Amino acid sequence: MSSSSKLVLYSYWQSSCAWRVRFALNLKGLAYEYRSVNLRKGEQFSPEFKKLNPLCFVPVLVDGDIVVSDSFAILLYLNEKYPQNALLPSDPQLRALNLQASNIVSSSMQPLIMQSILKYIEDKFGPAERQLWVRHNTEKGFQALEKLLKDYAGTYATGEEVYMADVFLAPQTAVAEMRFNIDMSKFPTLNGIYKSCKDLPEFQASVPERQPDAEL
Amino acid sequence: MGIGGDSAEAVFLLAEFLLLSCSNWLKYEYKAVNLVKGEQFSPEFSKLNPLNFVPALVDGDIVVADSFAILMYLEEKYPQHPLLPQDLHKRAINYQAANIVSANIQPLQNLVVLKYIEEKCGSGERLTWVKHHIEKGFAALEKLLKDHAGKYATGDEVFLADLFLAPQIHAALKRFKMDMTEFPLLLRLNDAYNELPAFQDAMPEKQPDYVPS
């Protein structure tokens, strides 16, 4: 058990949920110790990790005595404890929009297309059905996000500054494009947001390929 | 964000709670959106919420959809009756509990997904699926809340976690007829929620558009 007061992030290079937290930590200028949990090898089921998070998911953030699981909860916690470079705007409508966009990704998209669910779909119904399922659930979410953000997006999701919506959107878009071959040109607003995020050094440092446990 | 209305219950629960505990300064108009009749796809409602789920809150010019976003909006607008504790750690516990329900359980028990499973492999598989995901989430909640629960999930006052837990436990018991003996804390919380007038009033059966099945 580390006695350091540094933040510790349990992460896996390919986890889009961990990616969100890496991006947010970078935006806030927060240093952290990266601890890899190899999902491919099943390390999330180890007794030690299960104690940290009984759901056996990454990411988990440890801040001294405080353990926070779930990327959404982690981001809200970080935003409250380390308010610099706020993840939420002060305007109530834009704030709500950020929370809603984040939740569309976090509750309506990612849980339906995470690896364990996709494995279930593929085992039961075959790879073609899996691909249909991924496409359907991803595009449904992106269609909603496109409609939601169309009138608000600027350089980023809700204007000219990076906020929580961007932190959720960018990794999800990356995964959709690279892992699931979703054609993002159908979602011009989201595509624009993703392009803007890709220009940020904070985002570049958070990408899977640059993580200590990346297997390239 | 389930079509089944569990997340709508969370919002009603809060509204009722504020209504009853603050001498009616938080009134709201209930506008029914008949999901069975597909009213969530009307152009008017689609504009409010492009995902076509309830709930959606309209407050003057401001439209907020998504139960979590609504609750946080109300929390910030009506700070006199906080739905989050002051302590950062306890707040984080509330956020985690809410997300266990809204990201780990609800998306996998909503009608669209269940219909898909049932059409593909029958109602037996549907029930297995739903119980698996609820049990996994409930086991995590038992552990998460063990050292923090008081009368309610994170202490002796109703907070955000309770607003998500109450409808979810209700659904597990009533909709999915689950055996919850392995989840004694959640069962105890359920008893506490059942004593709250706000919770009684927020139940589906009490809503203006309730249709007995």
From TrEMBL, chain A:
Q: Which residues form the GST N-terminal domain?
A: 5-86
| Gene Ontology CC annotations of this record | cytoplasm
The UniProt GO MF terms for this protein read: glutathione transferase activity; maleylacetoacetate isomerase activity
Q: Which SUPFAM superfamilies match?
A: GST C-terminal domain-like, Thioredoxin-like
Reactions catalysed, semicolon-separated, are:
RX + glutathione = an S-substituted glutathione + a halide anion + H(+)
The segment(s) forming the GST C-terminal domain are: 91-216
**Highest rank taxon of the organism:** Eukaryota
Q: What EC number(s) has UniProt assigned to this enzyme? A: 2.5.1.18
Report the NCBIfam families cross-referenced here: maiA
Question: What name is this protein filed under?
Answer: glutathione transferase
TrEMBL record, chain B:
Which UniProt keywords are given for this protein, alphabetically ordered? Signal
Chain ranges of the GST N-terminal domain: 26-82
- GO molecular function list: glutathione transferase activity; maleylacetoacetate isomerase activity
Q: Which residues form a coiled coil?
A: none
Report the record's Gene Ontology biological process terms: glutathione metabolic process; L-phenylalanine catabolic process
Name all GST C-terminal domain ranges. 87-212
Pfam families, per the entry: GST_C_3, GST_N
What residue stretch is flagged as signal peptide? 1-23
Q: Name one GO cellular component term.
A: cytoplasm
Q: Which SUPFAM superfamilies match?
A: GST C-terminal domain-like, Thioredoxin-like
Keyword Signal belongs to the record: yes
Kindly give the InterPro entries that the UniProt entry links to this protein.
Glutathione-S-Trfase_C-like, Glutathione-S-Trfase_C_sf, Glutathione_S-Trfase, Glutathione_S-Trfase_N, GST_C, GST_Zeta, GST_Zeta_C, Thioredoxin-like_sf
Q: Which domain of life is it from?
A: Eukaryota
- Which NCBIfam families does this UniProt record tie to the protein? maiA
- Family under the similarity heading: Belongs to the GST superfamily. Zeta family.
Q: What is this protein called?
A: Glutathione transferase
Q: Which organism is it from?
A: Vitis vinifera
